[in-house]
Write a structure and sequence with these properties.
This protein is an alpha+beta fold. Strand 4 and strand 5 form a beta hairpin. The two termini are 22 Å apart. Helix 8 runs parallel beside helix 10. It is globular. Strands 1-2-5-4-3 form a five-stranded mixed β-sheet. 60% of the residues lie in helices and 8% in strands.
């Protein structure tokens, strides 16, 4: 799961120690790859001192060099490859016109430049103002057509989408204390990039982008739900621990190898469910939730039977996304049960591979497919099946087809198709 980076380590001169930063990345790099990434960092470090422009899509006091390092931290966890990491490090320098594409070409070659050009084209989406009470992608049909062409092009190389999503994730974190830009960036992320993360199946980015943009656009509603969650947190955490213990004992007695954890319900998803169903906070059953990871599909259904034997299920609150995967390849069993005290709790059951796909989506496919020099030996041994390969390719094709069908649609129709 993507995490916020720790503070940068400083060297003897007071500057950022790039080798210490590199050591924090969750990667196992070949020496040549390490040198390439450090070289990109040095290029970005030098570029930060050049005159540039304020592109308006980041916090006012942000720095292109540290922004690039933050972007690379997310990309490292998504395992996009060395060329993708280099492009991520340099993107903000190029975006702010402190660094030119010819300079990057001379230092790092055409593949990095192609990625940077793709991400730069996507930035045009953010230059068209987005408001919930009007056309989101601008007034002119020509602008809409250009945006669709960009999005169709990006799915030819998943790394372009991943770099842009990582960059927007860092941007929305960075404007936390920049009141003048929070709403604008929050609206853009909410309308474009959270839905795109959803379509690509990258769950942890989608949830963070949704929650932060919701917080900036609807601060009162966000704070109200956050207070309700905090007020019951100790009670809820204790309840979840009891459920985990009882489940663990039952499943291990059946010789099932399982990992059980509590699952946090995200604030935006709570608010959306309340709005969609017209219900109060107390009627959102899946605020209390437990996730069970098992070794095989057969174990998923065996676990389901044992859960049904423990607690009474709530009618019409069961979904089998293993037999019927979501369009973004999400697979899991979902059910809501009542424990003996009457409290509802959601149970999610999936395999470890399904969980990887749920968290990382297309990025999980990228990890399996590329198997670059920094990928662990464990992942090298665990090749994805041809069936799974075809499924991911179908996902890419589906996004392309959807975007092409929207070529003559309205802005709102296009936006809704992403969601």
């Amino acid at each position: 799961m993507v995490q916020v980076r720790s503070q940068f380590t400083l060297d003897a001169t007071g500057g950022i120690d790039l080798e210490s930063w590199l050591a924090q990345l969750p990667l196992c790099l070949a020496p040549a790859d390490s040198a390439r990434i450090l070289s990109a960092g040095e290029m970005a470090r030098e570029a930060q001192h050049r005159p540039g422009i304020d592109s308006g899509d980041w916090a006012l006091e942000a720095n292109s060099f540290t922004a690039g390092l933050d972007i690379a931290f997310i990309l490292a966890e998504l395992e996009v490859g060395v060329e993708g990491l280099v492009a991520g490090i340099l993107y903000r320098s190029v975006r702010e016109q402190q660094l030119t594409i010819p300079e990057v070409l001379a230092g790092f070659g055409p593949e990095v430049c192609t990625l940077l050009e793709g991400v730069t084209r996507m930035a045009a989406i953010g230059e068209i103002k987005s408001y919930s009470d009007g056309p989101v992608l601008g007034q002119a049909q020509g602008q809409q057509d250009n945006i669709r062409k960009m999005l169709i092009a990006l799915v030819d190389d998943v790394r372009v989408a991943l770099i842009k999503l990582a960059e927007r994730t860092c941007a929305i974190r960075a404007v936390k204390n920049d009141e003048s830009r929070r709403r604008q960036i929050g609206q853009e992320v909410f309308n474009i990039y959270a839905p795109l993360a959803h379509r690509l199946g990258i769950g942890h980015l989608k949830w963070e982008l949704e929650d932060l943009s919701f917080r900036y656009m609807y601060p009162d509603a966000y704070r109200k739900i956050a207070r309700l969650l905090d007020g019951k947190r100790l009670e809820r955490d204790g309840f979840i621990r009891q459920v985990q213990e009882e489940l663990g004992q039952t499943l291990r007695r059946a010789d099932l190898e399982v990992e059980i954890s509590g699952r946090a319900k995200h604030i935006y998803s709570i608010w959306r469910k309340m709005q969609r169903k017209g219900i109060g906070f107390s009627q959102v059953y899946d605020i209390r939730a437990v996730r069970i990871l098992v070794s095989s599909i057969a174990d998923c259904y065996a676990t389901l039977g044992l859960v049904h034997g423990l607690w009474r299920n709530i009618p019409h609150e069961f979904d089998d996304y293993i037999a019927n995967p979501k369009p973004n390849n999400y697979q899991s069993l979902h059910l809501i049960v009542r424990e003996p005290g009457g409290k509802p709790v959601e149970i999610q059951i999936r395999t470890h591979e399904m969980h990887l796909v749920a968290e990382e989506g297309i990025a999980a496919h990228w990890r399996y497919k590329e198997l670059t020099s920094y990928t662990t030996e464990e992942l090298k041994r665990d090749a994805v099946s041809q069936e799974k390969e075809n499924s991911f390719q179908d996902q890419i094709t589906g996004i392309r087809t959807l975007l092409k069908k929207q070529a003559k649609s309205t802005s709102d129709d296009f936006l809704n198709s992403l969601k």
